[in-house]
Design a protein that fits this description.
Length: about 100
């Protein structure tokens, strides 16, 4: 069972993540947010924490998707996201935990 924490702003999400570093298993973030670009949020998270980050956007351009992967996203989902895709997100958490136990 997972608990979801929702934030309306990237700055708020970053603050919550910093205050509770060991309480989260994964971050799912939109690329386009009003206060911070999703790629900027991704940079902060990957440099400060060991959390898998999934980016979501309606922007399916190859260069945008590749930017997410280059910046360290473990996945980039195109909106609208299918429910079958969401059901598989747990696999990123399992992979991260497996890497940390080796």
């Amino acid at each position: 069972m997972f608990t979801v924490t929702k934030c309306n702003k990237a700055e708020t999400a970053l603050s919550v993540l910093r205050e509770h570093k060991n309480e989260f298993d994964i971050v799912i973030s939109d690329v386009h947010m009003p206060d911070m670009d999703g790629f900027e949020l991704l940079k902060h998270i990957t440099s400060e924490m060991d959390l898998p980050v999934i980016l979501i956007s309606a922007d399916a351009r190859k260069q945008v998707v590749m930017k997410g992967v280059t910046y360290g996203a473990c996945d980039y989902l195109i909106k609208p996201v299918r429910i079958e895709t969401l059901k598989n997100i747990w696999q990123h958490v399992v992979r991260k935990k497996a890497r940390n136990t080796v």
